[in-house]
Amino acid sequence: MVNHTPLVADPHNIRLAMLGMVEGNGHPYSWSAIVNGRYDADVMAKCGYPVIAQYLGAQPKENLGIPGAQVTHVWCDQRTDAEQVARAAYIDHIVDKPEDVIGHVDAVIIATDVGHEHLDRARPFIEADLPVFIDKPLTDREDHLRQFHAWWQQGKAILSTSCMRYATEFAQLREQLPATGTPRLIFATMLKDWERYGIHGLESIYGLLPPGGWQRVVNTGTPELNIVHLTHEAGVDIVLAVGHDLVGGYGHVSVIGSKATVRAEFRDTFAAFKAQLVAFVDYLRCGVSPVPQTETIEQMKIIIAGIRSREQHGKPIYLSEIQP
């Protein structure tokens, strides 16, 4: 029987810190507004990410907010960004250093998506036994993955996911999978670079096949356009393209089988973010991770293997070569 032990002192009053901001990622704005349930529309419109104001503005007020949770503290790499986020999402406290939140919050959210930075960003809070949510990808380095694995082995509370895991469109695609007969080939496309957005593409297809069966990665592309061939023990081949200017291919998936083809296209950013954040808050309340650590490790091995294969001009990299 699973022991449902909360990770926080008061599951009905959870204080969160929103930490970090890197170029091209406005999650501190949107995630804080989603959790806190309110935002200043005028300030949000000037945040530099027009799409955030668009999808927040399209929501009825009752869709915003996670009851019993509040972002109470914020820190960004630039003080001016933290001040802007605090005004936009009504956050009470701005701290000078991320470590300043220790002792004042119940958990932290590291809202940056540069994988090789996450070990250092997360270390102070993991060592202080604060639960941590880390934006995708957890890491893109093998030695860092070994350290995260060691922390998990010690019982540390660490969660890292892509919002694509929670996307309504891909949940529906999984339900339609039997219509394909026997799946044989999966195509997926994603915008931006493999290091930061490869995990978005991977999470959009990961649930279509049994975890633990991913075998080999071959990246014959370039840093600008990664063409990644993945194999799975279920006998399915996967081609995942991740490119800097694939705007028209943001979150597209096709599954081709022995009988039919089913397709999905990611559209509802708000719903995916909200479900992702709710999953973390639920984890804090019950102590049971929504994602097995083995799945996160397997996914990070795929990301690392994709980088390694590309750097070695398309050499096949087996996940068994990457530790842990």
Automatic annotation (TrEMBL):
UniProt keyword annotation of Membrane present: no
InterPro entries, alphabetized: Gfo/Idh/MocA-like_OxRdtase_N (IPR000683), Gfo/Idh/MocA_oxidoreduct (IPR051317), NAD(P)-bd_dom_sf (IPR036291)
Domain of life: Bacteria
SUPFAM superfamilies named in the record: NAD(P)-binding Rossmann-fold domains (SSF51735)
Alphabetical keyword list: Oxidoreductase
Pfam family for this entry, one: GFO_IDH_MocA
Ranges where the Gfo/Idh/MocA-like oxidoreductase N-terminal domain occurs: 67-142
Family per similarity comment: Belongs to the Gfo/Idh/MocA family.
Stated name of the protein: Gfo/Idh/MocA family oxidoreductase
